[in-house]
Amino acid sequence: MPKRIDIYHNTIVAMGEGILITGADPAYPQRVRGNAVFAAKPISGGQQAGNVTAPYSAAAQYLAKPGGTLGSTLDLYPLTGKLQGATVDTSYALSLLDGELDFNKTPRSSTFYGAYSGDGVNPGWRPALAIMP
Fold it and tell me: Is 39 inside any structural domain?
């Protein structure tokens, strides 16, 4: 049985379920914070706070190119002003390896939701089935 679960600052685009927490030990925290989830069932379970959720079909209203091809045109970087808001407390993650960095390995701002700490034009690497340089 899982104990402590921390799911934070992810960008998820899925036709079905985005994040599902079930069967975890209730004596431990199961936190879901600061994520941007676009799915038919975005988030189920856990202690949810500061997440942006919307249907799968709405992902293009928030992200640069969510329908693109993995390793080519797929770009999950936020559109300007779409995934920024109130500060989300993820201070518990700062002690983790790269816990203070976003997907592009830049310092994270707690006012951005999802994997990236920025918006507009992606200055970094796009998701691919390859090792990030």
Answer: yes
